[in-house]
Amino acid sequence: MRADVMRPDVADVKSTDVVGNSFARVDALAKVQGKALYAGDLSLPRMLYAAVLRSAHPHARIARIDTSRAAGLPGLTAVLTARDVPGRNRFGLIVKDQPVLADDKVRYRGDAVAVVAAETRDLARAALGAIDVEYDVLPAVLDPLDAMQENAELVHQTGNVMMHRRIRKGDVRIGFAEADIVHEATYRTQLVAHCPLEPEAGLAIPTPDGGVEVWASTQNPFYDRAEIAACLGIPEGKVRVKQTVTGGGFGGKLDISVQCHLALLAVRTGRPVRLIYNVEDHIVVSPKRHPMVMTYNMGAKRDGRIVAAEIKIVADTGAYASYGPAVTVRAAIHSAGAYTIPHVLVDSYGVYTNNTPAGAMRGFGVPQVTFGCESHVDTLARKLGLHPVRIRQINALAPGAQTSTGQVLGESVGLWQAIQAVAAASGLWQGQEV
Fold first, then answer.
1. What is the pTM of this model?
2. Paired residues of 402 in beta bridges
3. 73-93: string of b/e by CB count within 10 Å (b at 16+)?
4. Which of 41, 244, 291, 292 has the fewest Cβ atoms within 10 Å of its own Cβ atom?
């Protein structure tokens, strides 16, 4: 295939050349031919293999870590704990609250306590059993509603409510007073794993200037570089991150996974080091979609107009913030749906628990609140004796309408046209007035 077709000059491309036309993906050929190199495919001479010892408890203080038995094992080249992190032992996309290696305590069962490098992968995994850790077990907070209670065990000393975002539009007291029907219900969504075909993986190579080069399956190489440099206590200019062909991300590879552990080991040993998660590692460790508890209270007139919405969202961000602040905000913004509602009150909370961290996943909190909001609107329609399409026609945002955050929409709002097209194409509403 011609290079100019595969990689057209952006300046020469017009929208009319792109919209409605098919283009070959620039990475497709190498993938289907099996020539694409994923992070787990990388191998170098004298390469070491890494493994990570993770917490045995969802919440506990670390009383003692003894690595002496592991250090004496044949074939083990390095065993590192928090005291071996030369720079900042905290990372985070928005809040720097997660340790590279746990120091004071562990906050979920996936917390990294120690990392090792050995001559083979089997030796590295076997060495984890020779690291002795004593824990003082603490009560675990596993439900976000429990975590918000005044006497709840603290996951972080800053408090269990990581973020609270408010939206106020109009006055819901007025709206509910005007309503002919009021309905309240609570909805829950569950934790969801990304499950990419390729698990988290990477390879780190020490450089002569005391820096490191990290090849990783990542969606965020510049963020990775900053966190690696901070962890090592070196300038960012001494860190180079290369994003390998990424076999699935969906937001799950925006967080730090293998990068800092590999960099620490490569610099300490002076040799290339590779780390590949297995499926269990991915399920236990990687950030997930936020589980949410959502309480909706809506008031509507007999003609179907929704006049008030009071919404409370509690998002379980797990042990660390990750993308929790962004998810908490976006859930609030979209919680009232694509509807014109004059009176809206929203309280959205991101809450720490001792569960697996929740982070970025396609939609950033919007799929959860959409489930809550649309379920609630369907129930309102039933209570009012309206068809579910009809109640959406009455309330759908349109040009000139104001969203729950006060944004006045311009001339292009195709919501009702889209609903109408789906209703007609599906055949579910044939013979019914919409």
1. 0.93
2. 408
3. beebbbbbbbebbebebbbbb
4. 41
